[in-house]
TrEMBL record:
PANTHER family: UDP-GLUCOSE 6-DEHYDROGENASE TUAD
Gene Ontology BP terms: polysaccharide biosynthetic process
Family indicated by similarity: Belongs to the UDP-glucose/GDP-mannose dehydrogenase family.
Designated name of the protein: UDP-glucose/GDP-mannose dehydrogenase C-terminal domain-containing protein
Domain UDP-glucose/GDP-mannose dehydrogenase N-terminal: 3-175
Protein source organism: Ostreococcus lucimarinus (strain CCE9901)
Length: 353
């Protein structure tokens, strides 16, 4: 039996996936109307597949009571926000730490507690474990997801990799079994210490952002070279199996709620342990320089006004997220240059702009 603390977009999706795999699931949240909408199956979500999965669910219930979750579950997943403000490097773990403290006050025994939200390396061993040290027989593991907003249900069904930072061998065994039953593609399951998993989680996103910045740099070089075609170049680069074709075509820079902050966070942690994060810094810096290059190219067209479409943080994103959107960044810089810019997108995105 599985429990969830935090039934937001990712928490609910994960709970539904485990329910589909045959697990009895109880999840808690702090908003009464939201909990009610899960239980009566009236919840509306822009995340594809959620409403249908909720309608079909028979082993999922939501509650406002944390104790209900702890009494129900053998393994408890925590999926609460660890946000950063724009430009900041660290994650705000206030809510996560409060949840762990609240769990400790209830003195559960022999539970496997699993943190799924992104944290800086060292959080679990230095803070999380301390907060639940009074919970007899309880382990604390790290199991972050690698998903994209707008594709969460699909990403949970067919993950490339499942990361398990196991607090105990038994916890690792349970998590491995759970994912083997809940996924459809036999993903690679990587088991390691929580400390290793904390670094690995950031490393994946940072490597992807490095590929994006590198591809855009090559694209900008090609644009400045008569006779060169950036798409031909980068498609060929991607054919080399050492590189791969994903995230290697030119376009807007990276944005969204994960990539920029994870890149900055890894850089911050590297400095903390005495390592100079030159690659993280260069990746972040070129993401800004590429926006400059895009604006320069647009201004050279000398148009009366510019139209920019599809301004969510990634192309054709079905959920309404514009955090660190690079199309919007380009639009803002055009306006700063004195140009008239028209944004074309669906009404929900326009309201956010």
């Amino acid at each position: 039996r599985a429990g969830f603390i935090g039934m937001g977009r990712l928490g609910l999706c994960t709970a539904l996936k485990f329910e589909q795999a045959g697990w009895d699931v109880c999840g808690s949240d702090v908003f009464p109307s939201y909990v009610e909408s899960i239980n009566d199956k009236s919840l509306r979500s822009k995340e594809p597949g959620v409403e249908e999965a909720l309608r079909k669910s028979t082993r999922l219930r939501a509650t406002l009571n944390l104790l209900d979750v702890l009494e129900h579950a053998d393994i408890v997943f925590i999926l609460v926000a660890t946000p950063t403000s724009a430009g900041e490097e660290a994650y705000d773990t206030t809510t996560l730490s409060r949840v762990l403290s609240d769990i400790a006050k209830l003195r559960p025994t022999n539970k496997h507690i699993v943190i799924c939200c992104t944290v800086l390396p060292g959080y679990i061993s230095n803070i999380g474990s301390y907060l639940i040290e009074s919970c007899t027989g309880c382990s604390l593991s790290y199991n972050p997801e690698f998903i994209a907003q707008g594709e969460i249900m699909k990403g949970l069904s067919e993950p490339d990799v499942v990361l398990i930072g196991e607090g105990s061998e038994e916890a690792g065994d349970i998590l491995q079994f759970l994912y083997e039953t809940a996924t459809s593609n036999e993903p690679r399951i990587c088991r390691m210490s929580p400390q290793s998993a904390e670094i690995m989680k950031l490393s994946v996103n940072c490597f992807v952002t490095t590929k994006i910045s590198f591809a855009n740099m090559i694209g900008d070089i090609a644009d400045a070279t008569p006779g060169a075609d950036k798409f031909d170049i980068l498609r060929a680069v991607g054919q080399d199996t050492r590189v791969g074709h994903r995230c290697i075509l030119p376009g807007y820079g990276f944005g969204g709620p994960c990539f920029p902050r994870d890149n900055r966070a890894l850089g911050m942690y590297a400095r903390k342990v005495g390592i100079t994060p030159s690659i993280c810094d260069a990746t972040d810096e070129y993401n800004r320089l590429h926006a400059d290059a895009m604006v320069k190219a647009l201004l050279e067209q000398k148009l009366e006004h510019y139209t920019i479409s599809d301004v969510a943080y990634k192309p054709q994103c079905p959920v309404d997220i514009i955090e660190e959107s690079q199309p919007l960044e380009v639009a803002k810089r055009l306006v700063q240059a004195g140009k008239r810019v028209v944004i074309r997108d669906r009404p929900a995105i326009i309201e956010l702009v």
